[in-house]
Structure formats: structure tokens, C-alpha cells
Amino acid sequence: MTWWRRWLGRTTSPADAARESWRKAWAAAAAHPDCGRVESLQAELAALALPEEEIELEREMLEGLATVCGQLTQLETGLPSVETGHRVIGTEACHFSAPAFMPDEPSQPAGRLLFTGARAVFVGAGKPSTIPWHSIAEVHYSARDVLLMRADRERLYRFRTNSYADALCATQLALRLMPKRSRAL
After folding, report:
1. Taking phi first (over 0 means left), then psi (-120 to 50 degrees means alpha), and beta for anything else, what does residue 90 get?
2. pLDDT tens for residues 138-180?
3. Could you tell me the CA-to-CA distances from 76 to 69, 150, 175, 176 in Å, in that order?
4. Domain segments of the chain as ranges
5. What is the fold of 87-177?
6. What one-character-per-residue DSSP string does 127-174 give?
7. Which residue, among 164, 108, 173, 175, has the nearest Cα to 136 in the 3D structure?
């Protein structure tokens, strides 16, 4: 039936349109985490009545929003502390650690993204990349990506995490760790 919809000028099915509408609602709730929307988004997703295998990504997105809401509650009392054995961190307290890779680099190195109070560190494929928070002007996320833009606009660091939860949590934590002069999302 796909060719029939295309012939009629309809390129998306009603199920795809409903899923896209849900994704837009999720994106609005995730942009500035609206924790009050988690339950309603869950109900809206269930109302789509799609087979579970067709909404796996949406379930992950919803889980990410719920996870970042839990993190925001924790951040009200202070920064999290994560145990890590990485030598590159030294004696600094580690506040975030997740597997990631850098999709924009030619070799697409895989490794671990770590946040301390002073810097973001990517450990993987040889020499670690260290980005001091004072050099970051903007923080953004896109799906599973965390984007850190340098203040001089010379470099954009893009780290792809394994989950929406990691990307959303890293973004919210980075916004708190970077200088207050300019923050974006």
C-alpha cells in the first residue's frame, strides 16, 4: 500500500504521523525538561496502540526524559559523584561518565565521556581530549548527541552516547558545570 499512498500524495501513514506528533511533544518536553509531561507522554504513547517493536525508540526517549527528571531532582542537592578509575581524572571528582564516540572525527574514536568540575574529558583512541568548562559557550543535545561549542566558535565537540538518557543527563549537567555567562540548549 505504500505506493498507493505515494500516488495519492500521502507519504506517511497515520501511525507514522501519530508517532511524529508524539516525538514533537517529547522534544518540547525534553528541550527544557518538563517532568510533569512524563506521565502524559507515556499515556499518549500507549494510546497510539502500536506494536511494542514499532515504538522501541519512543520508549527509550521516554525513559531518557524520566531519567533526566530524576537527575534534576538530585542536582537540587548537589552534583553527583561517580566512581572512576581513569588516571586522566586524577584527584578531581567525577560527576558524569558514559560510553561515547566522536562521530565527526575521521576515525570515529570510541571511548568514555567524563565530566569533572573543571572540564569535560573524552578518553578513547589514544590521546584524551580535554575541554575546560570556561572555554565552552553553548551546550546542546540532539537525540543521543551532546554538543559542546567553544566560546571562540572555532570548534564544536560532538559526542554520541548510547542512549537518550545519557545525552539528556550529560547536557543538563554540562549546563550546570559551564560558566554562567552564556548557556544554551
Report:
1. left
2. 999 999 999 999 999 889 999 999 999 999 999 999 999 998 7
3. 11, 27, 14, 11
4. 2-75, 87-177
5. PH-domain like (2.30.29)
6. SPEEEEGGGEEEEEEETTEEEEEETTSS-EEEEEESSHHHHHHHHHHH
7. 175
